[in-house]
Amino acid sequence: MLSPGQYVPQCVPDRRPLIMWSLVVVGALLFVGLLVLAPLAQANGLQWFSFAVYEAFSHVCHQAPERSLYIAGYPLAVCARCTGLYVGFAAGVAFYPVMTSLKRTHAPERKWLFIAAAPLGIDFGLGFLGIWENSHISRLLTGALLGFVSVFFIMPGLVQLSLYQRLFGPGSAKQSELEAARSPATSEQVTAAPSDYGAPLRRI
To answer: Where are the domains positioned within the chain?
Structure first.
């Protein structure tokens, strides 16, 4: 009869993909929240906070007032197209576990990313050439589409990164499985690590 300390489980859950996904969700929602908090803070007299947020996002967006959505009489921290990108990405991350496995480490074919980016490029190109005047809605929707689809190309890479032992500390189950697969077990190791598959009566 084996003691609990000697038992070797056959299926060890790896929570690192879940941890990585949780961090990305929190970060994405934080970014979206800051977009909205900037004009709300400006409207409520918190100029120092709104200035800090506007200044931070000014490095990634032109923040043109005529191309931005407004809340409480002030523009969001980024333009309508960038707002769509952030909101679409946050929505894609939030629903990612519903649509695919968190343990997935391979991205879809690149053509899907180009297809998702095509409406944004067409909307921008036609407006730039003066063929038609794009609107807040067109900028928001085309940006949201690209942001949503990009999640399926970013998350697999982040999940794969999370599976490296150094990222979340030593002693991970995944790393142990990989090392065991590379080096065959000796007879002493097999004897020292009994499995419940060797004694079916113990599993009844």
So the answer is: 15-170
